[in-house]
Amino acid sequence: MKNWKHALVTGTGQGIGKALCQRLLDHDVKVTSIDRDPIIWTHSNQDKLLNHIELDLINSNSVNEIISELSSRKKLDLVIHNAGISATGKFEEIDPTAYENVLKLNTLFPMQLSASLMQNGLFAKNANLAFVSSLSHTTGYPGASVYGASKDAIAIYAKSVRKPFAAQGVSVLSVFPGPVRTDHAQRHAPKGADASKRMPPEELASRILKAASANKKVLYPGAAAQSARILGKIAPNLMTNMMRKIIYDKLDRPVW
Amino acid sequence: MIKGKKSLTLITGATSGIGLELARRLINTDDLVVIGRKEAHEVYAMLSDNIQYIQTDIANPVQAVDVVIAGLEKLDIQAIDRVIHCAGVGVYTSPDQETSEQIGHNVSVNLLFPVLLTKALASHVETAKGKVVLIGSVAHKGSPNMASYAASKAGLAGFARSLEAEWRDRIDVQVIHPGPTLTPMLEKAGYKVGKEGRFFLSPEAMAEEIIKVMATNKKSATIFIGAKIKSLFRRKQSA
User: Fold this and answer.
1) Based on the structure, what is the number of domains in chain A?
2) A79 vs B: CB within 8 A
3) Per-residue confidence (pLDDT) for residue B65, from 0 to 100
4) Is B7-238 a domain of CATH 3.40.50.720?
5) Which long-range contacts (CB under 8 A, 24 or more apart) does B36-42 make?
């Protein structure tokens, strides 16, 4: 793993974000973690190295709060936009506020914070910036059209800023994970979906940090994600139809 | 209430650029409900007194959707044959210069408003067995100098792709990506048109092309004539 000094990770209360934090703490990296909830997990290094900010990133002032908090600290050499929420069900059955929140958290916040970190010179030299998009970027996602949209948007933002940010010493990684074994995935999955096939968050966290260490541009973690990427490219309609059968037709309830 | 047996089209962003040219053409065939921010008298002067106009600022998407729904109720409109989401904004600048306000404005207008309006009008469009048309951009594949704009249009394209699959047997969803067009949006975005402007389409020509595509069953289409001419021209030069 690269010799990072100060990382910022969002959505650290559980799942992938928690696994990322723990892995970074294992390697003595100072971590600024952000989540709307307090941290309830423990790590032997947390008193020494973890600075947790309890903040709801949907709140429009969250970017300013983070920038002012960071300006007195060491510059960041790793930023991972991991926080995300979904809204699954029939498009017209979901509350519009849920759509607003999905787009604010998954799309708007990572763009605003990334641009603000740049403007305020808060990245260290040779820093890494990672955006956790979704494997849904390779396909349509009937039953989560706005979540899919939010992840497409952030994937294209990452692609768009890659060159200009690289010119300023920030290497951008886009991550397209398939299903991960998290409470979040469980909540949104159709009933009876097989959780054992989902990637453990610890494994995904390791893969993300490995890819960022190597200044990789994109990461499709695991063989299943790589196959889906290829299928999405050569047969996008087939893939979207499969998603409809596997997910949309089996959704038994709206969840947001 | 709008009279006549013509089909009813609701269009956003019809007071400037491609949307205005679309509206000018659709007036001949459709009853129009126009959504925009400008004053009503300006819009009637640009288009016709024969349209219905609902004034609202879509930079505040949640309130704007409420205004549109209240406006439609007042007009006693329950069925809409076609909703065209044409309103769009963008900023042409390096991504490290984009302010939070600009990014927020792009996402609100280009993505959140179309999502919320599509949801709010779903039953109107289904009643008419109608169609939702989302105007995207060729930038949806990425653009270093319009990063959050490109992102918002990628979101719109992804939204269309998923919703089309979801609504397949109920409501048509189509996304159309115009290539570079000489619209006031470019100027507002801070883009200085240079020699490459020769290969951009005029809003009139783009509107003509969009109308042709809207008449087809294509789920997604890109109109990029300027680039096509450019590539032909280049090939000719190097030959």
Assistant:
1) 1
2) no
3) 98
4) yes
5) B36/B12, B36/B87, B42/B15
